[in-house]
């Protein structure tokens, strides 16, 4: 503490000289860090100035400075836009289902993989579960559209089992879209989501399990009392990030699966912003929506961090 205070009292010239001396000593490491910093400044911080569009009436013939200010008019339009609030309902519905199902399944799958004793079989299961993550939504969306079509595999299977008497295109049914979006996302990302959990479980001291076996603990009891407590911090971190992203439904998935028949249940905030900004050219309105969503996401992030810190003996994972 005293050393840092003394360093702060040094003249600016000496501090800059020391900075360049340290930079010269660490130029190999700095050469790898600074491109990332420059990239973030150009593509993450400089565009923040563009948020002023949310408070202007911006068109393609304007510049950021020449567009006239309209204050909070765009936000007032948002408050009375029925289609926007419909997209909010769809976003929250899909996101909460993904949170309830998609957050738990990777944990269960990771524990199941960890408990496998056959090394070769474990690798096969891991590879199969990871594979969908590396396929784009263009590919997976095309597969789902084909499978759920009137003559697709899913309808033929239900007909053969006698569950339905007439085939129908499931992708055109708005009532089923939320479940299609949630389950297809779980199918794609559940295996990939196990990586962090498996890495944490690999670091658990095996003597804990040996001691539990000596005490007569079953495998379920070992998982409950040893495995899950050691995963508590990473589970909390993933929960915080998931909750903060509740308003950020998967745009790629939506653009692939949405159609004119299921739009009323498929339109989410991200696709609505894309449609208003890129398709209809209302950049100010789209920016205002995006800004509002970002503010709410930050609030959710802080709230989730507070809640998880209470559950972790007031220890924050961020």
Write down the Rg.
Answer: 26 Å
Number of strands: 0
Poorly predicted parts: none
Name of the CATH architecture of the largest domain: Orthogonal Bundle
H-E string: HHHHHHHHHHHHHHHHH
Major sheet characteristics: none
For the record, give the distance between the C-alpha atoms at the N and C termini, rounded to a whole number: 23 Å
The tally of domains stands at 2
Q: At the third CATH level, what is the topology name of the largest domain?
A: MetI-like fold
**What is the helix fraction of residues, given as a range?**
over 70%
Strand content: under 5%
Helix and strand content put the structural class at: mainly alpha
Shape: flat
In DSSP terms (H or I, runs of 4 or more residues), the helix count works out at 17
Q: Mind telling me the CATH class of the largest domain?
A: Mainly Alpha
Full CATH superfamily name of the largest domain: MetI-like
Average the pLDDT over all residues and give the rounded result.
86
InterPro entries: MetI-like, MetI-like_sf, UgpAE/MalFG_permease
Transmembrane segments: 33-55, 92-114, 134-157, 177-202, 223-247, 283-304
Keywords: Cell membrane, Membrane, Transmembrane, Transmembrane helix, Transport
Family: Belongs to the binding-protein-dependent transport system permease family.
Question: Could you characterize the architecture of this molecule?
Answer:
With 318 residues, the chain is mainly alpha-helical. It has two domains: 1-55, no CATH class; 74-311, MetI-like (MetI-like fold), CATH 1.10.3720. Helices cover 71% and strands 0% of the residues. The chain contains 17 helices and no strands. It has helices at residues 2-9, 12-25, 27-45, 73-79, 82-102, 104-115, 119-130, 137-147, 153-161, 174-202, 206-214, 219-230, 232-244, 251-257, 263-266, 269-279, 283-311. The two termini are 23 Å apart. The mean pLDDT is 86.
């Amino acid at each position: 503490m005293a050393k840092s205070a003394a360093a702060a009292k040094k003249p600016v010239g000496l501090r800059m000289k020391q900075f360049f001396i340290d930079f010269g000593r660490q130029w190999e490491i700095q050469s790898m860090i600074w491109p990332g910093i420059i990239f973030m400044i150009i593509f993450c911080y400089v565009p923040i100035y563009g948020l002023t569009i949310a408070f202007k009436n911006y068109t393609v013939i304007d510049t950021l400075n020449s567009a006239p200010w309209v204050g909070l008019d765009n936000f007032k339009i948002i408050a009375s836009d029925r289609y926007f609030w419909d997209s909010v309902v769809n976003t929250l519905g899909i996101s909460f289902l993904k949170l309830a199902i998609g957050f738990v399944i990777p944990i269960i799958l990771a524990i199941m993989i960890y408990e496998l004793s056959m090394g070769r079989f474990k690798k096969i299961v891991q590879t199969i579960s990871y594979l969908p993550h590396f396929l784009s939504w263009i590919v997976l969306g095309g597969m789902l559209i084909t499978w759920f079509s009137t003559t697709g595999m899913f309808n033929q299977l239900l007909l053969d089992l006698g569950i339905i008497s007439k085939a129908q295109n499931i992708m055109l049914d708005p009532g089923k879209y939320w479940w299609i979006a949630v389950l297809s996302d779980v199918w794609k990302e559940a295996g990939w989501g196990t990586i962090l959990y498996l890495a944490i479980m690999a670091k658990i001291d095996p003597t804990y399990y040996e001691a539990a076996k000596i005490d007569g603990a079953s495998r379920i009891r070992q998982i409950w009392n040893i495995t899950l407590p050691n995963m508590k911090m990473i589970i909390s971190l993933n929960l915080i990030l998931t909750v903060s992203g509740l308003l950020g439904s998967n745009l790629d998935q939506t653009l692939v699966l949405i159609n004119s028949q299921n739009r009323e249940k498929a339109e989410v905030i991200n696709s609505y912003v894309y449609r208003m900004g890129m398709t209809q050219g209302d950049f100010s309105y789209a920016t205002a929506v995006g800004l509002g969503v970002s503010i709410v996401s930050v609030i959710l992030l802080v709230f989730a961090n507070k809640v998880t810190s209470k559950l972790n003996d007031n220890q924050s994972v961020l």
